[in-house]
């Protein structure tokens, strides 16, 4: 956003923590002139394995339930925001894996990505409020200009440029797997149990997760904090070079202190157990005193209890 010359007020959070709702509330309450036009939030921060509660963010922005009105025996409820700010959400690694309610939370713009949970997803979703705001915005526009897309959609051509048709077919197949084969609720539940199994493995290894409180635990990636005498990059290098296992590096302030285990997308229980076994081997090779099989056993205990039978094979 700074590259687009927006005036950005960044609210920094400690590594392992989600959105600081108190600071956000203070800044909006102080903005009586409504100079702030949008609040941008990362739903799931993959660098630390932290998920923020977008519903709580919306409550801070303010949705007041007013008295109901009656017209011909039909009761309608009116909602009024205490601050007219737009809510923009980075849902790149969350949509399709973590519970996300765009309408209920009144999210104005959600941006997701093809390389994450949905696989081959469209660039994003936007609300009528966001589209209306874009009509009056003076900011620099690029490839994804809503105005051009809406104009073509109304004319029946849908795309202002030549689309990547093969990606659209891939998106259709991916959505069918999520919505028709497994079911979105089951997909979200699968991510949840894989994450819990991974966290139990980390505890069995005598290590800690990066997320400082359970309310911030991510269900798509787990950040693992290594002891001060160990460089997490060494674990990652050994895992890749010796065991063909790709782990995520620690980024920014947690570089060298954290490695990340992803359990996002089309990952099942047996794939996760194999990955956890590989982590144990890598930890052993770099000198960390882990009992081989301890994390795998802890994860198995969770998965054996929580994994349901495959519906199509009942």
UniProtKB/TrEMBL annotation:
Cofactor dependency: pyridoxal 5'-phosphate
Pfam families assigned to the protein according to its UniProt record, in alphabetical order: Aminotran_5 (PF00266)
GO MF annotations in UniProt: alanine-glyoxylate transaminase activity; L-serine-pyruvate transaminase activity
Domain of life: Eukaryota
Keywords per UniProt: Aminotransferase, Pyridoxal phosphate, Transferase
Residues spanning the signal sequence: none
Stored InterPro entries: Aminotrans_V_dom, PyrdxlP-dep_Trfase, PyrdxlP-dep_Trfase_major, PyrdxlP-dep_Trfase_small
Single biological process term from Gene Ontology: glycine biosynthetic process, by transamination of glyoxylate
Domain named Aminotransferase class V: residues: 83-210
GO cellular component entries: peroxisome
Family in the record: Belongs to the class-V pyridoxal-phosphate-dependent aminotransferase family.
PANTHER family: ALANINE--GLYOXYLATE AMINOTRANSFERASE 1, AMINOTRANSFERASE CLASS V
Protein name listed in UniProt: Aminotransferase class V domain-containing protein
Annotated source species: Physcomitrium patens (Spreading-leaved earth moss)
